[in-house]
Amino acid sequence: xxxxxxxxxxxxxxxxxxxxxxxxxxxxxxxxxxxxxxxxxxxxxxxxxxxxxxxxxxxxxxxxxxxxxxxxxxxxxxxxxxxxxxxxxxxxxxxxxxxxxxxxxxxxxxxxxxxxxxxxxxxxxxxxxxxxxxxxxxxxxxxxxxxxxxxxxxxxxxxxxxxxxxxxxxxxxxxxxxxxxxxxxxxxxxxxxxxxxxxxxxxxxxxxxxxxxxxxxxxxxxxxxxxxxxxxxxxxxxxxxxxxxxxxxxxxxxxxxxxxxxxxxxxxxxxxxxxxxxxxxxxxxxxxxxxxxxxxxxxxxxxxxxxxxxxxxxxxxxxxxxxxxxxxxxxxxxxxxxxxxxxxxxxxxxxxxxxxxxxxxxxxxxxxxxxxxxxxxxxxxxxxxxxxxxxxxxxxxxxxxxxxxxxxxxxxx
Length: 413
What we know:
Blueprint: H1 12-31, H2 37-44, H3 48-76, H4 79-98, H5 102-120, H6 122-132, H7 138-167, H8 169-180, H9 183-188, H10 206-214, H11 217-246, H12 257-281, H13 287-307, H14 312-325, H15 329-341, H16 346-375, H17 379-396
Helix pairs in contact: 1-6, 1-7, 2-3, 3-5, 3-16, 4-5, 4-8, 6-7, 6-16, 7-8, 7-12, 7-15, 11-12, 11-16, 11-17, 12-14, 13-14, 13-15, 13-17
């Protein structure tokens, strides 16, 4: 390992507590953006496509720059990257609050927050985790950290709805900007002791690691499955609230804001159990089978949701089931990346496979708004989500969960 020595590792408790807190703040805040969809578009006279495009760009930028942020964190340590992320997150939220035109809103919510998320979410935090947690506990620890992000969703969604109801969308965003600034002191608690990155002749360069991953068929399949994940979860996160509001003319009981808020919070609550369970099961069962099962199960849950008469209860059941499957893909996907390629370039390679996830997120967010504006319905996007879940099931089955063999090495640690 070309980073900290064993004696200089951060303690397991410190990594889990503060890594979990970083992800709780970053993921928790972003999961509530769907609640701002209608208040912001109605206040500014925008179509839903405008808000959807901002969130879509946010996800695309997050994904596109994640490998770069990951490579910088692998090379120089995660502290500086996470501090810059906290600053950009606060500036982006404040910019969203103060923007009255589309361009400024898109720059703040799309560019600034997209870049912030590259520095404060799973890939960079998992790099710290991978360097400081033994291989035997790695997937379990990743599951705990992902569960922290789920707790953030459960905590922040009702908080954000409460802020919107009490202070309005603009002031709510300013208060969230203050909360995002807390990521800066949290980053200092994840500062790796005497972080070094000494290079040895037999070590992989960044270019070699990228080439190896991109040519690996299991990595390619894993990335395509992650595209499916991104499409489904971001479409639901951004468009579930307006979907329920639209159907309130037929099913009046689902039109209250509390139904959407409760549903999104339930996704976060049950995601805690799903991600933690995935971390445990991923140590015992082939992770590719768990991933395949998650994608297929999502399709089944969506079919049931859009086929049954809509009510608060069916919405809550859908949210609970979907929540159990929500981010359970994260510890499993990153665990496979670490298992195949090792941990030296883990932040970068996790970021690379995550780029595929964010391409899916872009499509889920944007096409949800675009197709709604074109057709007046979300039906087509629900159908695409179902089909993608079946494809995700199929592409994960052939993945090979074994370490690559390199010249001068017989296995990857």
